[in-house]
Amino acid sequence: MAAPKIAVIFYSTYGTNHGIAVEAAEAAKAAGAEVRLLKVAETAPQEVIDGQEPWKQQQERMSDIPEVTLDDMEWADGYFISVPTRFGVAASQFRVFVDTLGPLWQTGALAGKTITATTSAQNLNGGQETTIFSTYTTAMHWGAIIVAPGYADGVKFEDGGNPYGYSTTPGPLDETGKRSVAYQSKRLVETTQKLLG
Ligand SMILES: Cc1cc2nc3c(=O)[nH]c(=O)nc-3n(C[C@H](O)[C@H](O)[C@H](O)COP(=O)(O)O)c2cc1C
User: Of 21, 64, 129, 156, which is most buried by a Cβ count within 10 Å?
Assistant: First the structure.
């Protein structure tokens, strides 16, 4: 049986969603997937980034990670997406990439892929669920299959309990967060594997 191909795609200004993506990639590999860890291209002007030391440092931490391309979207059987909340929806850097996917959508290349989403926001009620929903809304236009974590694992009763996707506040993942992301990623791999047959 061929290993499911999973693209873990993230955008991160300060490191939180980068951390989530790294955990998700490791868990997907452990679950038997072929994995690509990919960042979304930055769109903010370099002089703005250079003016904020934490942003600049995060750019350096991610410098070895390739930028996601349309080929990666076609290659993958499933997507694990992690992007920060910006005014209640996904960061515009991710939306800019999404807005290049028209040609793939047109040929049906995105249909039937699996997808799961995570996010971080400054405030617990600051738009985490709406951000994940905004990603899932787009995925429905593609004909992708949403693999939400639900409450199908006990960790969801410890991690803040967002059944749509793991969500957190900025900072490094704690042990519960790591287990929750690993569970969500493994569920994506297993569901993708079932669909591949
Ligand atoms: C322009 C902008 C808009 C934001 N909007 C929200 C928001 O609506 N709700 C919220 O709780 N946090 C908001 N934040 C905080 C971000 O969600 C936070 O910086 C992000 O989760 C950190 O993720 P990262 O470490 O991966 O960059 C916003 C931050 C910026 C810069």
Answer: 21
DSSP at 67: B
Confidence tier at 70 by pLDDT (50, 70, 90)? very high
Which residues make beta-bridge pairs with 80? 8, 116
- Ligand 1 binding pocket includes 131 (Cβ within 6 Å): no
The backbone torsions φ and ψ at residue 35, rounded to the nearest 5 degrees and listed phi first, read -125, 140
CA of 75 to the centre of ligand 1 (A): 30
Please say whether the dihedral angle defined by the alpha carbons of residues 71, 74, 78 and 80, taken in this order, is positive or negative. positive
Distance CA 135, CA 84 (A): 11
The response to whether residue 87 sits with its C-beta less than 6 Å from ligand 1 reads yes
Residue 192 contacts residue 31 (beta carbons within 8 Å): no
Q: For residue 88, give both structure tokens.
A: 């209640």
- Give the pLDDT score at 2: 87
Cα 60 to its chain centre, rounded Å, is 20
Domains defined along the chain, listed by start:
5-196 (3.40.50.360)
Residue 27: Cβ within 10 Å count: 25
Measured torsion, CA atoms of residues 197, 150, 13, 114, in degrees rounded to the nearest 10 = 20
Q: What is this structure's pTM?
A: 0.98
